[in-house]
Design a protein that fits this description.
mainly alpha, 4 domains, two-stranded antiparallel ribbon
């Protein structure tokens, strides 16, 4: 895939360089970039690739997004995708005519956006999702009977990637409408495993609205209808639903139900190898991560469980980046609540290193960074930079841990 080249970074680069009290010569030497390159970028005579942008940003000690004009920033590109996604949602049942690739090519395109979702590359999804969804809707409307189910399944997977963009950006209404499109496509896919995937994703609506008890009931209904065969895909589908039910039960204050679902997820996880099934990571490692999630959901009286697991185990590097990042975000919250702010900040930084876009848009990262900045005076500059990077303070005030359930 060709490298992305951004234009218009010159003025911001020059500004950040002056703030850092560096000459062009000094920045070039520190970044390991030719002096002529620095000069041409600042004068607007050339664009800057992602690799060079990251190298210069590291030398300046800033996030690469700060060197980009607003229209080129990752969050800006995500915002620009919203109208295109809205247009797809307005016409998916009666799409306009247009070109469509064949089924193998669409399989490849959807596999790419699924991989981007698992690695939390939301800005890259945003560039392609509107066009891909529109094309898939056209392809589904004209598909031969022999290809219709497969095409509907691809639309479900692509919608899930687009939903990740909307949900992480806090566009809850758009997210809910994308999930409705997923449900519509899943009916045409006529696949019980696809129905389980949609139920798993739809729980986001209840997390966002904090209707946890309702969400728990919906997941338990989905479990009643999930396939009960011994195939790895079916075991993983049920296991993923149990994992999500355990977390939402914890948020609902249902400790007993949370532990039952977690035990069921653990039993199923022991029967499959860790992997990505129907677009969801599941296996023994994913269940361990959800143990931390459940402990944090249940709050005070359960935090030691999360901290003990984190002392004994860390998520392996071959897990999807979004899931690994989520582990450290959850751990950071447990450490903060347990009175360990330094450890909490280190966990947030690890989450950022693994999946920057996931961490930056995560409400808990924003809340916890704001709390850490209020609590601490040591490392104030480092904390302030981190808080600025993740827009700390934009979210609601951090909640206090739930009393033991």
């Amino acid at each position: 895939m060709p490298s992305i080249v951004w234009h218009g970074a010159g003025p911001r680069l020059a500004y950040e360089r002056r703030i850092a009290s560096l000459t062009q010569d000094e920045l070039a030497e520190r970044a390991g970039v030719a002096l002529g390159t620095i000069r041409k970028i600042e004068r607007g005579e050339r664009g800057v690739s992602g690799v060079v942008l990251g190298t210069i940003a590291d030398a300046l000690g800033v996030d690469p997004a700060r060197l980009l004009p607003d229209r080129e920033r990752p969050d800006g590109r995500v915002h620009q995708a919203m109208p295109g996604l809205t247009a797809v949602l307005a016409e998916y049942e009666d799409p306009d005519d247009g070109p469509c690739r064949d089924l193998p090519a669409l399989y490849e395109a959807v596999a790419t956006v699924v991989a981007l979702r698992l690695s939390a590359q939301y800005s890259r999804i945003a560039r392609t999702a509107p066009g891909l969804l529109a094309e898939l809707c056209r392809a589904l409307s004209t598909a031969a009977p022999s290809e219709r189910q497969a095409m509907a399944g691809l639309l479900v997977d692509a919608c899930r990637a687009a939903d990740a963009v909307a949900f992480k950006r806090g566009a809850k209404d758009l997210s809910a409408r994308l999930i409705d499109l997923m449900r519509w496509a899943a009916v045409q896919a006529d696949d019980p495993l696809m129905d389980a995937t949609v139920a798993y994703v739809r729980a986001e609506v209840h997390f966002g609205a904090r209707t946890h008890a309702v969400g728990l009931r919906a997941l338990e209904r989905a479990l009643d209808h999930a396939p009960r065969t011994g195939s790895a895909a079916a075991l993983a589908a049920r296991g993923a639903l149990h994992m999500r039910a355990a977390v939402i039960a914890g948020r609902a204050g249902r400790g007993d139900a949370a532990n039952v679902h977690l035990d069921d997820a653990r039993t199923l996880g022991d029967r499959v190898r860790e992997g990505v099934y129907q677009g969801t990571a599941f296996g023994p490692d994913s269940v361990r991560i959800h143990e931390v999630s459940v402990a944090v959901s249940l709050g005070e009286g359960h935090l030691d469980r999360a901290l003990k697991l984190a002392r004994e185990w860390k998520p392996p590097r071959d897990l999807p980046a979004e899931r690994r990042s989520g582990f450290y975000i959850e751990l950071g919250r447990a450490q903060l609540w347990a009175g360990r702010p330094d450890a909490a900040f280190e966990s947030l930084k690890v989450a950022r290193q693994i999946a920057p876009q996931h961490a930056r848009e995560h409400r808990w990262v924003q809340e916890d960074a704001a709390t850490l900045r209020r609590l601490k005076r040591a490392d104030a500059e480092d904390l302030s930079k981190f808080a600025e990077w993740c827009h700390a303070g934009r979210s609601a005030v951090t909640s206090t841990p739930r009393r033991g359930t």
